Amino acid sequence: MKASELFKEYIWLLNTIYQAGKISFADINEKWLSTEMSGGLEISRTTFNRHKDAIEDIFGIIIECDKKDDFRYYIANKAVLREDTIQNWMLSSLTVHTAVQEGVSLQKRILLENIPSGYKHLQIVLEAMKANHCISFTYQKYNEAEVKNYPEAEPYCLKLYKQRWYLLAKVKQQFRIFSLDRIKHMESLERSFQFDKDFDAEDYFHDYFGVFRDEKVPPQIIVIRASKAERPYLRDLPLHHSQKEIATTAEYSDFSYLISPTDDFIGEILRKKDRLYVISPIELREKVLKIIEEMGENYKKQKKV
Questions:
Q1: Contact 157, 168 (CB under 8 A)
Q2: Which side of the chain, N or C, has fewer Cβ within a 10 Å radius?
């Protein structure tokens, strides 16, 4: 069987079990027989076990059988499918890809967000990360004419944020963040580097929103008030993993966060317009208010031009 056909079956099986919560082997086969992939033949127990092992190997998603619950299958480590995990991203991407492959007519009915040209550097970065090889690149920030040269950098992790890929790399023993779409030229070097085994990408960004860290802005408790219209969105897709709903009324809900109030976080609050506003700390509330007032003044100036 072709690899592409096997992947279709993996994705189908994974989605079927995930959507069901728990499902018996017989029910899996009943659903399987209703697909074109089956060719009218059931999945054998041997094939099912091979698929199950392959899913764990490729995606890191573990499918187990609950012998105490009529031998029904379930995903044992559902946490890996939360919104911000690579497994979730891979599963979503491959599910769409599989659906499009099955019907060319769907290609014009599935619209995706544009990812800037940084993707062309992804393969180089991924291979360098895998081999712990240094990379060399030139970089030009927005609104700057100068193109800077980074002859040697250690690639530590990649993060996708607001349609852009960002690279966290060590340059002269200091972590720096780079947007891949601002890189002009990149190549992998033969020189290896010693990856810090204590480094954890999730820990690095743990107290921050977005991709930029600011050591001068320590994490603190922030309380945000969400309007009645906005709170269901926050419940389904929290702004940050530390989010807690601490007060609820008919008209609003208050959410607390343990987070560093960097520009990325403030920008997200402002993006929600009048649906979100800062309750505390007062310093952050005043900072956001000042930004809003300056925006208002800019609009007034533009109106006069």
A1: yes
A2: C
Report yes or no: 226 and 268 within 8 Å, Cβ to Cβ: no
CA distance 115 to 47: 37
> 222: part of which helix (H) or strand (E)?
strand 220-227
H or E stretch including 51?
A: helix 45-59
The structure's pTM equals 0.74
* Number of Cβ atoms within 10 Å of the Cβ of 200: 11
**Six-digit token pair at 153?**
């950098």
**What is the percentage of the chain residues whose pLDDT exceeds 70?**
89
- In the block, tokens 């000042």 appear at 290
Taking the CA atoms of residue 144, residue 119, residue 88 and residue 219 in that order, the dihedral angle to the nearest 10 degrees is -20
H/E run at residue 156:
strand 148-161
Nearest to 118 by CA among 185, 204, 205, 31: 185
By DSSP bridging, strand 72-75 and strand 63-66 are: antiparallel
